[in-house]
Amino acid sequence: MPVQSRPSKSSSASRGGGGVGVGSSLPYIHSSADSSSHLSSTLTPQQYLQRMTDLQQMDLQSAIDQMRTLLSFYPQRVYKMAYYRKQTKNHWARDDPAFCFLQVIMLAASSIFYGFAFRIASFSAIVGFVAKSILIHWLGFGVVMASVGTVVANRHLMTAERSSSHVKQNVEW
Fold first, then answer.
1. What is the DSSP string of 140-172?
2. For residues 54 and 47, what is the distance between their CA atoms, to the nearest angstrom?
3. How far is residue 93's CA from residue 5's CA, in Å, rounded to a whole number?
4. pTM over 0.90
């Protein structure tokens, strides 16, 4: 039976209580007769957007710590945290939209400041520049690169099954 995550409104981690997504979701058993089902971190876009609009549901402190660690001299610590998440939740991806939320906020702020610094003519031109930066450059290019990377990794970079006890894995999108 696959384990899926259900959002928890009363988690201590979502209020900055620490951990890498610890307590941000509670596992529950999904009853399914399908024997080929597996553990997955796949959230529907609707679930992801619902989590993004609920600030109490996001682990902002963990996302800020992750960003700060990525900018430090020790980015391997972020890999180690992701590896621990893979071992405990069986997926590499964060199921918390806080990292994306903070990236969008910072991208919007930097686009606005860029518009002011280079004296973009009007307010509507600055809003258009922010929308273009977020929707086309960040989201559009990200979707294209994630899709291409997933296809290449799953088709060409997977190793042949080593033994009967080897668990087949796929790269998540």
1. IHHHHHHHHHHHHHHHHSPPPP-STTPPP----
2. 11
3. 13
4. no
In this structure, are residues 38 and 2 in contact, taking their beta carbons and an 8 Å threshold?
yes
Q: How many residues does the chain have?
A: 173
The residue among 90, 105, 16, 93 whose CA lies nearest residue 57 is: 16
b/e string for 50-85 if b means 16 or more Cβ within 10 A? ebbeeeebbbbbbbebbbebeeeeeeeebeebbeeb
- Token pair 């600030």 is at which residue? 55
pLDDT tens per residue across span 84-137: 877 887 767 777 788 999 999 999 999 999 999 998 889 999 999 999 999 999
Q: Are 75 and 69 in contact, with CB atoms under 8 Å apart?
A: yes
